[in-house]
Amino acid sequence: MLYVPEAPGLKPMGTIWKEVIVSITPGMAAVGAWFSGAGSDKYGRRIIIIGSTLIFVTGAVVCAVAWTKIVMLIGRIFLGVGIGFASMVVPVYLGEASPTHIRGTLVSAFAMMISFGQVVANVMGGLFSYWSPYTVGWRLMFAFAGIPALIQFVCFIFLPETPRWLYENGQEEKAKEVLKKIYSGDEEWINFELAEIETYVAERKKQMEEEKKSGPVIWRVLKTPHVLKACFIGSMLQAFQQLAGINTVLYYTADIIRSAGIENYHTIIWISVILSVCNLIGPFVPMTLIEKLGRRKLFLFSCAGVIISLVLIGVSFLLVGNDSAPNYGITQYALAGNFTNHTMKANDCFSLSNCDQCVTSEQCGFCENSETKTGFCYPVNPSDPTLYSNIGICSSDFRNENASFPNGE
Predict the structure, then answer these.
(1) What is the C-alpha to C-alpha distance for residues 277 and 275, in angstroms, rounded to an integer?
(2) Sign of the C-alpha dihedral, residues 198, 204, 206, 208?
(3) Which residue, 21, 163, 317, 387, has fewest beta-carbon neighbours within 10 Å?
(4) pLDDT tens sequence across 21-73
(5) Contact indicator for 402, 375 with CB cutoff of 8 Å
């Protein structure tokens, strides 16, 4: 989102459009995840995963060739649906189609690979940012997202359906054939896994019969106090993890770094890479200490770390606001000439005291004069809000070489 808002054909892109384009993907991922369970039960894990890769590749291509904001939004919707299907079904596939003795490791690796993927994405974004970023580079960033999905599609053509799904759907012989491949023909492991699957299927049928008599599982959870308590605690832990703002920090890392005063986009991207590497390294700490310290101590320690981090981020934003350059707009307005058509908008921007307040307004941008070391809050130019103001030395009419219009959106 550093380069996309200034790309030809996608301008002007204000804050609302940015928020919609960014948030539509996780929003549609939730929709995809909601429908993935029923789909994988009916059609199989493998089919849904293959479908998700095709949807994701389609989304990456549409975003890469997007010539308008609407097309970009459509591509982001495809990406979200693909992510939702894959994020729900791939762990299930790993759990059902992997050998018992490494199953836990593979399922844990899935979560680890998400963080690894973020590192790779940031690194590739950094590399592509040197290649005509406003016209070609950002398109390559989106297109690259389709490559891992395409590799997954090709690989899954040769992978089998899970033995558990096959057994549940009356294909016992095929399930045995898949288990022979998984365990390299080891009869002892094959029989053990078949017994596990048979037990699971029997319990599943029993559960479905109970649901017909006493209602859905969620209703029984609500009626059972100790189960309800455990469900509530687990749900709240997940909710607080998201409400702490981790996704906001990750999605808007570039904007946060830029608001701290770093103007060079390449520098911003490489700092984002460092943050994504920290996000990748972080899980190794609890994995190493969990058996020594226990779950509860590690959880409390991590909560303290989150609180301290959020306080530091909040304080830094306050400091940015207090130390922000003052707005000399009223004086400049008197000297700039007759702009009677823009008086109302100009007065709204002039009333803001400094740069920080100015750039957080949708209608205003901060115009900096490197020669006089002063700054002015002007209304943005509707046709190109990221480059020009509507009046003053940062307008398209003046084109003052000493003036810059950063964060004017």
Answers:
(1) 5
(2) negative
(3) 317
(4) 988 998 999 999 988 888 888 898 999 999 999 999 999 999 999 999 999 99
(5) no
| pLDDT, tens digit, 9 for 90 and up, residues 100-130 | 888 877 877 887 888 899 899 989 999 998 9
Judged by DSSP in three states, 389 sits in strand
Q: For the purposes of burial, counting CB atoms within 10 Å of the CB of 60, is it exposed (0-12), middle (13-18) or buried (19 or more)?
A: buried
Q: Residue 199: name the closest of 247, 166, 167, 244 by CA.
A: 167
Q: What angle do CA 1, 359, 314 make, to 5 degrees?
A: 85
User: Mapping DSSP to helix (H, G, I), strand (E, B) and coil, where does residue 5 land?
Assistant: helix
Number of H helices, E strands in the chain: 19, 3
Its pTM stands at 0.76
Provide the β-strand partners of residue 22: none
SS3 state at 364:
strand
3-state secondary structure labels for all residues of 230-280: HHHHHHHHHHHHHHCCHHHHHHCHHHHHHHCCCCCHHHHHHHHHHHHHHHH
